[in-house]
Design goal:
little secondary structure; elongated
């Protein structure tokens, strides 16, 4: 069976392209809000 009507997943970057690393904007990774990943 070939499925031709697929929808694409939305792009969700794993880093913050705007560089905003304020505490209130952090996501919880691994259960702790202090785990902020910065890829520079």
């Amino acid at each position: 069976m070939i499925v031709t009507n697929q929808t694409e997943m939305p792009i969700n970057p794993i880093f913050n392209p705007e560089g905003d690393d304020a505490i209130e904007n952090r996501s919880i990774w691994f259960g702790n809000t202090t785990n902020l990943m910065q890829l520079v």
